[in-house]
Structure formats: structure tokens, C-alpha cells
Amino acid sequence: EEESLKYLESVKQSRACLGAKEAHYFYKIYMSLLDYVNKKHHIIRENNLASAYHVNPSDQVEIRNKLFEDLSIIDEFVALNPNRLNSTLLKQVKEMKNAIMMNCIIVKYENNYTLVMGEDETLYGVIGGVCNLDEVIPAHSLPYVCKLVLVPYKGKIVYDGVIEGANIHMGDGFCSMVADAIKDGQIYKSLPIVMN
Prior knowledge:
Layout: H1 2-5, H2 20-41, H3 57-69, H4 73-80, H5 87-95, E1 100-109, E2 114-118, E3 123-126, E4 144-153, E5 156-159, E6 164-165, H6 172-183, E7 187-188
Parallel strand pairs: 3-7
Antiparallel strand pairs: 1-2, 1-4, 2-3, 4-5, 4-6
Helix pairs in contact: 2-3, 2-5
């Protein structure tokens, strides 16, 4: 059992996020999309999420949940282009149709990604936006059960900045099960997943 637990050991992350400049563009397009969803469905009062300095995470969750009820709204957003995004940014918005909202386990931290396991034991190499995930959830709290939105962006998988934690502590048996599941698993670092 102790042998398999070594697969859960994390390292300090150094390059596991987009960084400030690239995150600015990611959030510009993602929040523009959420702003469109909000305006269409009148979810919260904020009238311009795309330029808001801070969005309450519970508001963001409510809006993104509405987005995931019908991802075809992304096609509508791209066709209308209400924020006048350039063609490159619009292409990145289109790719967001491959985003996934899922219950998952943040398993461990690697230098340049975070290992996340979905309920079906699919493994994802995920990065943060502005900061590394190990700055948000400390390594000693792993494995961490939560709900995440994984968004494709420039060939990488970025979580959308909000982690809905389940506040469940896992025992050694669970940790061993997770370690066994990741031992030989393929890690996907882009969406959509293309099976070999």
C-alpha cells in the first residue's frame, strides 16, 4: 500500500499556470462569454462581467452552470460577437464548446500541471490561469474532491478559476485506490480527448 501511495506525492509547482499576460486574454474571452449568458438569462445584476475587476465566485458558478445547460449558446455568441472580439479570440471561444464541467479529484501537483481525475478515472493535466493550483489548494489537502470546469485554451486545459470543494476528507484506502488508478493511466493535456 505504501508503495502505491508514492504515486500521490506532489512537487512544488513552478510553471503550472498561464501567467498574468496570457490569463488576461483567457479571462477576457471566458468572462465575455459568461457575460453574454448572464445578459441573455438575467442571472445576476452585474451588467458587464467582461470588464469587471472581480466576479463573486458563487455568481460565476451560477452563470457557468447555465452555460453548461446548453453549450450551443457559444455558437450564438460567436455569430453575434457582442464584444467585438478579433477572429483569433473568437476561434478560442468556439473551442470552449469542448469544455467539461465535472466532479473530480485533484490528485497531485506536478511541476507544470495539476493531475485531475474524473469520475470515470480519466486523467487530465490541468493548469491554472493567473496562479498555480498549489497556491489555491495546499498539497497536504490532496487528494481533494471537487467540481471543476476544464476549458480548452491554446492546446492546454485551464480550470476556470473556481473550485467547488466537497469538503470530504479521504482515508488511506481511498488514497490507495486513487494511486492505483493513476499509476498506469494516460494523462490528457488538451480537449477534446482524442482516443488513440
